[in-house]
Amino acid sequence: MNKHVFIIGLGLIGGSLALTIKEGHRATISAFDVSEEQLKLALALGVIDMAEPSIEAGAKKADLIIIATPVKQTKQILQTIAHVDGKPSAIIMDVGSTKSDVMQTAEDWLPEGTCFIGGHPMAGSHKSGVEAANKRLFENAFFVLTPSKRSTAAQLTILKQWLTGTRATMIEMDADEHDKIAGAISHFPHLIAAALVGQVSDLSAEHPLAMRMAAGGFRDITRIASSSPAMWRDIMLHNRQEMLDAVDDWQERMRQIKTMLENASDEELFTFFADAKEFRDALPVKTKGAIPSFYDLYVDVPDYPGVISEVTKMLADQGISITNLRIMETREDILGVLRLSFRSEKDRKKAEECLGVASYPTYVAT
Ligand SMILES: NC(=O)c1ccc[n+]([C@@H]2O[C@H](COP(=O)([O-])OP(=O)(O)OC[C@H]3O[C@@H](n4cnc5c(N)ncnc54)[C@H](O)[C@@H]3O)[C@@H](O)[C@H]2O)c1
Ligand SMILES: O=C(O)C(=O)C[C@]1(C(=O)O)C=C[C@@H](O)C=C1
């Protein structure tokens, strides 16, 4: 019999999951979203098969329910679902960036025997909405699952089968440990990115050139400050203690840096940067996960008219598709002024070979 998947909150993550499930399963996928616009768009883009008029209507018939709203709403939705007379075999999951509060709400509200498994794909974007949904978003990323008293090993296996199309690496983790790690590698960096933007924003009131001069370094470290403010407000409030601890730790680090600067301690400053570089360089580059790889290739091209079309034609002649092209405004630490993005490592390798034959130096950023 045809299975039914119901997604609540059809934005970037809900939409991307719908696309991955569609690929691997013959299931009807329906969704509910408070935004009718999102539902209309999702239907037009073929992301879902049908829109539901309410949470109750979709939850009643679903085999798999995915809650993909901001975390504050997820907790309210769990309370709504608790009153729905759904299929006894249904699996309910969420995709929220914080886990402890959500797991506690499921435990407090869902009736005995209802299956709930927490989820968090460690991949995303600063973009929101179903228009940004992408079936490859989770490829090679970690997908954290937090099983609970409300789930069995067999149900966890079924859920993993539903999620095979993500091509993500499933890992199981306790909610508190998840929140500690995600707090350090995702939540706190968003706080710092926004604070850095605030610092430059204040500076540009007096020095308007600051905004225009902002180059690769500032752009790289602050890309995530363009994310949804509502989503990040909720994440901060749902991982508040970890954030408070991280702020304390950060203040202590800043105090140490201040001392190094006051004392002009060149050796200590060198060690500070060298230690950071060593750890950062050791992060995996080929797989997604803590830091996603985008299959980018930097090409050092001479400065003459028509050079970009020469490069793109060369790749097109070899049947290699480019998913994105950017002319770098500054060279920074990367040689090459053209950044080409590809869909896969295989395409990037082919492009590297093709451009190498034509004597264009190419570089892969690590
Ligand atoms: N964006 C990321 O990088 C990322 C990555 C992993 C996990 N997450 C988590 O995934 C969840 C969704 O994030 P997103 O990036 O897809 O956000 P999004 O803004 O793209 O989508 C959220 C959707 O939920 C809908 N919504 C809000 N309240 C609702 C309600 N009460 N009922 C039904 N629909 C409602 C919104 O209209 C929107 O369409 C969040 O909990 C977030 O923490 C985000
Ligand atoms: O790439 C981005 O824009 C993200 O912010 C993705 C990111 C992250 O911090 O790494 C954001 C939130 C998530 O819960 C998981 C992934």
From TrEMBL:
<keyword id="KW-0057">Aromatic amino acid biosynthesis</keyword>
<dbReference type="InterPro" id="IPR002912">
    <property type="entry name" value="ACT_dom"/>
</dbReference>
<dbReference type="InterPro" id="IPR003099">
    <property type="entry name" value="Prephen_DH"/>
</dbReference>
<dbReference type="GO" id="GO:0070403">
    <property type="term" value="F:NAD+ binding"/>
</dbReference>
<dbReference type="InterPro" id="IPR046826">
    <property type="entry name" value="PDH_N"/>
</dbReference>
<keyword id="KW-0028">Amino-acid biosynthesis</keyword>
<feature type="domain" description="ACT">
    <location>
        <begin position="296"/>
        <end position="366"/>
    </location>
</feature>
<keyword id="KW-0560">Oxidoreductase</keyword>
<keyword id="KW-0520">NAD</keyword>
<dbReference type="Pfam" id="PF01842">
    <property type="entry name" value="ACT"/>
</dbReference>
<protein>
    <recommendedName>
        <fullName>Prephenate dehydrogenase</fullName>
        <ecNumber>1.3.1.12</ecNumber>
    </recommendedName>
</protein>
<dbReference type="GO" id="GO:0004665">
    <property type="term" value="F:prephenate dehydrogenase (NADP+) activity"/>
</dbReference>
<dbReference type="GO" id="GO:0006571">
    <property type="term" value="P:tyrosine biosynthetic process"/>
</dbReference>
<dbReference type="InterPro" id="IPR036291">
    <property type="entry name" value="NAD(P)-bd_dom_sf"/>
</dbReference>
<dbReference type="InterPro" id="IPR008927">
    <property type="entry name" value="6-PGluconate_DH-like_C_sf"/>
</dbReference>
<keyword id="KW-0827">Tyrosine biosynthesis</keyword>
<dbReference type="Pfam" id="PF02153">
    <property type="entry name" value="PDH_N"/>
</dbReference>
<feature type="domain" description="Prephenate/arogenate dehydrogenase">
    <location>
        <begin position="3"/>
        <end position="291"/>
    </location>
</feature>
<dbReference type="Pfam" id="PF20463">
    <property type="entry name" value="PDH_C"/>
</dbReference>
<comment type="similarity">
    <text>Belongs to the prephenate/arogenate dehydrogenase family.</text>
</comment>
<dbReference type="GO" id="GO:0008977">
    <property type="term" value="F:prephenate dehydrogenase (NAD+) activity"/>
</dbReference>
<dbReference type="InterPro" id="IPR046825">
    <property type="entry name" value="PDH_C"/>
</dbReference>
<dbReference type="InterPro" id="IPR050812">
    <property type="entry name" value="Preph/Arog_dehydrog"/>
</dbReference>
<comment type="pathway">
    <text>Amino-acid biosynthesis; L-tyrosine biosynthesis; (4-hydroxyphenyl)pyruvate from prephenate (NAD(+) route): step 1/1.</text>
</comment>
<dbReference type="InterPro" id="IPR045865">
    <property type="entry name" value="ACT-like_dom_sf"/>
</dbReference>
